[in-house]
Every structure is written in structure tokens, then in C-alpha cells.
Amino acid sequence: ELSVKRIRANGRYRSRYRHLVINWGNSTIPDWYARILNKPESVAIAANKLLTFEKLKEHNVSTPEWTTSIDTAKEWVQQGIEVYARQTVTGHSGSGIVVCSANQDVVDAPLYTKRVKAKTEYRVHVFKGRVLDVQQKRKRNGVETNKYIRNLANGYVYTRNDVVLPDIVQRVSIDGVAALGLDFGAVDIGYVENENKAYVYKINTAPGIENTTITKYKEAILTYYQTEVRHGT
User: Fold this and answer.
1) Alpha-carbon span 37 to 47, nearest angstrom
2) Do residues 190 and 118 touch, judged by C-beta distance below 8 A?
3) 106 neighbors 168 (Cβ within 8 angstroms)
4) Contacts of 69 (CB under 8 A, 6+ apart)
5) Which own/partner pairs from 50-59 qualify as long-range (CB within 8 Å, at least 24 positions apart)?
6) Using an 8 Å Cβ cutoff, are 186 and 43 in contact?
7) What is the chain's pLDDT, residue by residue, as a tens digit (233 residues)?
8) CB 162 within 8 Å of CB 181
9) DSSP result, 142-187
10) Which residue in 136, 222, 220, 151 sits closest to 184, CA to CA?
11) Beta strands 120-127 and 130-139: pairing type?
């Protein structure tokens, strides 16, 4: 859509001061002499759920309660709390997740999170401190779903029809992207209505985008380039 040059991190590219590099999810790009949207060090944090939670905690951005201690996770389960044992901190689409409850042993994992009983989940696309686009995760009609891992394989899809974004979700999403030092990101976030609280699950730096979302990213990037890079400082 942007009709710009596409480069690989290890490809041939001669950077220039007035260039803008859109880093789509890469944590290992060279030190190019150009303006870069999403620095690789910030992408590396976003790609690691434990590092993400640590950074968000440092900036007082709410996440599900978490621990790296298996003993603490066992205590939670004994209290009747459902716990996600995350056997990989860099997985996606639910990979590496084991749901632990009172009827199961707690497995070894580098990260454990309490299940947040959020009825509503959103994906909030943030660019330079403002919300670009919002999608809500909903059940697909006629498909059996899994309440613990809400992804495409388990019968859930993102929709944008009749989506109303609570103010707290918008604010926490923007704060989450800023906390990781990102210029843009797609925030997966849960909303607990009776508490009016939002909990960041993950921030994606290479989200799948299509149709309207592509157009909104394109417009935001072009505006940023024209005002801040080409004719700015």
C-alpha cells in the first residue's frame, strides 16, 4: 500500500538521514543511519512475554497477576485460581500454554499468570500515542470455542462492527505501547466490566492487518513521514 522499498535486516540498504524505516517485528536490525519506527530493542522486549510484563510493571501498566515461582503458582491453584503455565515466553497463538486448575499438577514453566475473567477482549492498534483502530474478539457463529485460549483455532475472530472502546482500555493500551518504548503496536487487552479495569496480555509489533486497518496504518505512517521526517526535525 505504501509503495516503498522492502528490505531484509541482513539485506543491502544504504540508509539516509531523511529515510524512514518501518520495522515490522524485527529485533535484530543493523544500526542504520535513518529514522526507525519501533527500535529493535523495544521489539525484543515485546516479543518476550516475561520481559513485557516486567517492563509494564515498572511503568504501572496493569497486566494479569504473574509470577516466575512454581511454588506461588501452586498456592494459587490450591486457592481455586486457574493458572496459565507459559512454557515458552516467546510463543504466539496460545502455543506453550498449559491451563492448571485444582484437578491438575502445576507444570514447570518460566512464567505463570492468573486467569483474568474478562468477558471482553480487544486488539487496540496504537500509533505514536493515539488509537488507530480497534477490533473486538468474538466467537464465530456455529463454532465450538475454548474459553481459556481465545484464538482463531479455538473459534474466535477479531471484528470491528459495533465496537465501543471503554476509556480505560484506550488509556491502558496507549500507556502499554509507550512503556515498551514502541512507536506503534497492536495491544491484546482484556476488560473486566464490573471492575472497570483493563489488563494487557500482549503487545504485537508485527500484527496481521488487512483492509481498513492497512489503510489506517498507511495514512498514519505517511502523515508522520511528511510532518516529522521529511519536513520536520
Assistant:
1) 16
2) yes
3) no
4) 112
5) 50/89, 50/110, 50/111, 51/89, 52/180, 52/200, 52/202, 52/203, 53/111, 55/179, 55/180, 56/176, 56/179, 56/180, 56/200, 58/179, 59/175, 59/178, 59/179
6) no
7) 999 988 876 778 888 888 899 999 999 888 888 889 999 999 999 999 999 999 999 999 999 999 999 999 999 999 999 999 999 999 776 678 888 887 678 999 999 999 998 889 999 999 999 999 999 887 665 554 455 555 555 556 778 778 889 999 999 999 999 999 999 999 999 999 999 999 999 999 999 898 899 999 999 999 999 888 876 65
8) no
9) T----SSS-SGGGTEEEE-TT----HHHHHHHHHHHHHTT-SEEEE
10) 220
11) antiparallel
> Cell triple for residue 184?
506503534
The C-alpha cell that represents 205 in the structure block: 509489533
